[in-house]
Amino acid sequence: MLEKTDLSLTLDKKVYKSELKALKSRLEELQLKIIDMKIPVLIAFGGWSASGKGTSIGQLVLPLDPRCFNVYTMSPSHDDLYHPFLWSFWNKTPEKGRIAIFDRIWTRLALPEDDHGIKLTDKERDGFYYDVNSFEKQLTDDGCLLLKFFMHISKDEQKRRFKDLIKNSDTAWRINAEDLEQNKQYDKYIKYFNEMINETSKPGCEWSIIEADDIRYAVVKIYRIVVSSIEAEIERRLNPPALPQKPEPKSKTKPILSLVDLSKTIDEDEYDKKLDIYQNKISELGYKLYAKRRSVVIVYEGSDAAGKGGNIKRVTAKLDPRGYEVVPVAAPTLEEKNHHFLWRFNKKMPKDGHITIFDRSWYGRVLVERIEGFCTREEWMRAYKEINDMEQHLSNNGTIIFKFWLQIDKDEQLKRFKLRQENPLKQHKINDEDWRNREKWDMYDLSADDMFAKTSTPYAPWTIVESNDKKFARIKTLEIITSELERRL
Amino acid sequence: MLEKTDLSLTLDKKVYKSELKALKSRLEELQLKIIDMKIPVLIAFGGWSASGKGTSIGQLVLPLDPRCFNVYTMSPSHDDLYHPFLWSFWNKTPEKGRIAIFDRIWTRLALPEDDHGIKLTDKERDGFYYDVNSFEKQLTDDGCLLLKFFMHISKDEQKRRFKDLIKNSDTAWRINAEDLEQNKQYDKYIKYFNEMINETSKPGCEWSIIEADDIRYAVVKIYRIVVSSIEAEIERRLNPPALPQKPEPKSKTKPILSLVDLSKTIDEDEYDKKLDIYQNKISELGYKLYAKRRSVVIVYEGSDAAGKGGNIKRVTAKLDPRGYEVVPVAAPTLEEKNHHFLWRFNKKMPKDGHITIFDRSWYGRVLVERIEGFCTREEWMRAYKEINDMEQHLSNNGTIIFKFWLQIDKDEQLKRFKLRQENPLKQHKINDEDWRNREKWDMYDLSADDMFAKTSTPYAPWTIVESNDKKFARIKTLEIITSELERRL
Question: Are A32 and B428 a contacting pair at CB < 8 A?
């Protein structure tokens, strides 16, 4: 593919100047529409070293208002290397109405070694490509306009540019051994890059190859694609395709949550004894996790007043406070709403060696947001796969995932609500919304059923925890966490 | 000081249990007041290795709701090392109504070498202590409750704990050569720590020394101090001391801005020629900055429509977009309002080797916020010193600072406002507020006068840029930036 590109294409200086002027003023206008229509735009650059990425980005941002774009250099920071590799990409995805420009994307994946310098197996590379395609699809499904430019130059041109840069003592440092290697092994790299372009050109997420031996030609081609793609996106939004109305599927079976045996209890003495044992064990396991740089994600879901907070406290009681974080999840802020719904959770994922406990989670999408109509049917239907892909990506990174559903029955909930209202220290934990949610008990049962069926995976299984007896529930979660961690570490 | 501490203090297990239980439930209550009264609390731990910081923090957070506290391990990240050393502390300061717990604070400063392993001169150490004390004073002046605990253990006890940790293969990795060195040279370290405690115990920011050979004694002492300090802070807020009313000082001299010669112009040809020269020069200087890891901060202030945006674009036109960021400053968000006013700016400070351009800045505090009454008189009066200290801290880090005031006269402003209203592409740049600000022209003149007088420092001087002729203004800023950078690099 790259071999067949015609790199002799050039643009006369005069034509360049007048074309660029027109394109710039068009982009200046379009940017107001992007803000107005709240379109998130991601423009990513890949390609050879010294292929003119910096120059192209520099030209592209000139007509843009600094209030609505960001340029990101994507070479991984120290922190990035301690997270799943998509983490840093997720963090930098554009808010609605903003343009994010990535300097470098995915080219690193093309190489036979990863960021840590470890040789990749075919299976690992396939995993990477799967994750990349899923990430891009999630963004575009969510309304993001994604443009990817591969800056292509010839071997001779690259050599010439390296020479020029090295001649000047102020720019010589920009060229390192890896860059020179690229030129020496140009043909091998073409093979890598071809594969990467092939593997990551899915519908709506295709690469545009930019002939960049002549930088003027390259800049104008990029501008043209940017301008026409934004125009097309605006047009698409003004005339959205009609979606077929599908009827809500009806479940014929009894919901699984109605079948849970909530009579299970534990006696006081056994509780005290086991609590002590497990808490000491989990504390030790926490240090082991840190030493082995493995991370853990624990998700708590369940009805209101099911005892999530108290359960979490029993898990963390003897953990080193520097090794874990509890993330309470409430309604998204405005900024969070202006991103893909997984953005805010991705940001909170643990650094390798750490534990993050989510008190409610991304499953809100297929529970409360589905039930209350906070998102469209199409959005929550899509969310099951998006969630599975995210958890698989974590798991590929070595993260150990627990998902607990704490279940109580309606009578028990009523009892606990009343207790909360009577206790001045706990009154802040109960409000009108809790009472309203209670009326939707059956819809939660149904949604939870779908959720268990679609998101219980080998790498991230659900556990339903019988929680009418809080103490029983605490010991059960501690038991599962400690035994699984012992098995995996 | 530390030598005289009585480390034989212990607490009986039974007393410990009952005391702790009472203190925990008191802290649980107080936390609701902290949220209600929007008190920011910062609890910081310093002290010897293996002195029980982790255990103490673990106990302290048990009664707290995860919704309102964060624990931070303060060992510097890679990113932290590329910023002024207070940067990471600023980033983690608590929002109003939240508790931030720092594991380690300032102890690193006590050592004869800095984070990069470079030996410190006395002058540098004095600079560090000045910056630390200024930082702490800014937080407490802003209403933050600051508690600092120094965990003190004896040489023998430390040795015993190291042995225990090393014996167990799961914990052995927690002890490194530096820790062992601390025990070997215990007496020397006492001297360092004493000095640090002395230098950073200013009124309202004193260290509490915690006798920690007996961890039970330590935990209860910490709890008592935390509980009583919060109680005192609540009391203080309910009965604030009356502030004396001072009359607004009246300036007798003509404001400096009224004396600026706005007739200066540049002719078209000279402009084109110089623009080209300076833009090429600044582009090269940008790479030099990066190679030398020096950072640059450029502040733009001035009347509405003075041409800040256009001026900034001429500065950045040929800069590598990966090396600079333009930060447009608007009204603070709710989260930003819940922090010290400098918090949001500190977060945006450039990484070493990069340029950050602020389109409006922290000077809003002593301009619009002073004039509109968005902060108290006491707050903006205090701000001059806070700003100077922040800029000095940047300058100590090697950051080169430019501050430009773009000045136009009232007639020129009116002309530009009208032009904006007529141009559909620029209508979004003008609103009612701009017209209202225009009516307060004289008050801005007066405030700017005070600002120039109080914040023009050798390390961060102001330049007034005559901007009735936009082109003249652009060349003037470019000239100043390039010549100063050439001098400093």
Answer: yes
CA distance B209 to B152: 7
CB contact under 8 A, B78 and A78: yes
Contacts of A287 in chain B (CB under 8 A): 170-171, 174
DSSP line for B265-315: ---HHHHHHHHHHHHHHHHHHHHHHHHHT--EEEEEEESTTSSHHHHHHHH
CA nearest B103: which of B20, B159, B42?
Answer: B42
A456 touches chain B (CB under 8 A): no
Which residues of chain B are within 8 Å of residue A319 when distances are taken between CB atoms? 58
Q: Is B17 on the interface with A (CB under 8 A)?
A: no
Q: Two tokens at A28?
A: 């200046």
Given the structure tokens 């006068």, which residue do they identify?
B449
Residue B238 neighbours by CB distance under 10 Å: 8
**B228 touches A: beta carbon within 8 Å:** no
A321: nearest CB among B29, B71, B284: B71
* Residue to test with chain A: of B53, B320, B324, B352, most A Cβ within 10 A: B320
Tell me if ipTM is over 0.90. no
CB within 8 Å: B425 and A32: yes
Whether B67 contacts chain A with CB within 8 A: yes
pLDDT in tens, A110-164: 888 776 777 888 888 888 899 999 999 999 999 999 999 999 999 999 999 999 9
Angle between helices B441-455 and B377-396 (to 10 degrees): 40
Selection from A271, A268, A233 nearest residue A140 by Cα: A233
In this complex, which of B57, B287, B425 lies closest to A171 when CB atoms are compared? Answer: B287
> Tens-digit pLDDT profile for chain A (489 aa)?
898 888 888 999 999 999 999 999 999 999 999 999 999 999 999 999 999 999 999 999 999 988 789 999 988 888 888 898 899 999 999 999 999 999 999 887 888 877 677 788 888 888 889 999 999 999 999 999 999 999 999 999 999 999 999 998 878 888 988 899 999 999 999 999 999 999 999 988 999 999 999 999 999 999 999 999 999 999 999 988 776 666 666 666 788 888 899 999 999 999 999 999 999 999 999 999 999 999 999 999 999 999 999 999 999 999 998 899 999 999 998 889 999 999 999 999 999 999 999 999 999 999 999 999 999 999 999 999 999 999 999 998 899 999 999 999 999 999 999 999 888 878 888 888 888 888 999 999 999 999 999 999 999 999 999 999 999 999 999 999 999 999 999
CA distance linking residue B444 with residue B442, whole number of Å: 5
Read off the pTM: 0.84
Cβ atoms of A213 and A7 closer than 8 Å: yes
Q: Which residue has the tokens 């989260």?
A: B335
B58, B288, B320 ranked by CB distance to A320: nearest: B58
Nearest CA-CA partner of A65 in B362, B429, B278, B276:
B429
DSSP letter at B2 equals G
Q: How far apart, in whole angstroms, are the C-alpha atoms of residue B28 and residue B202?
A: 29
- A309 contact B CB<8A: yes
Structure tokens at B472: 């003249």
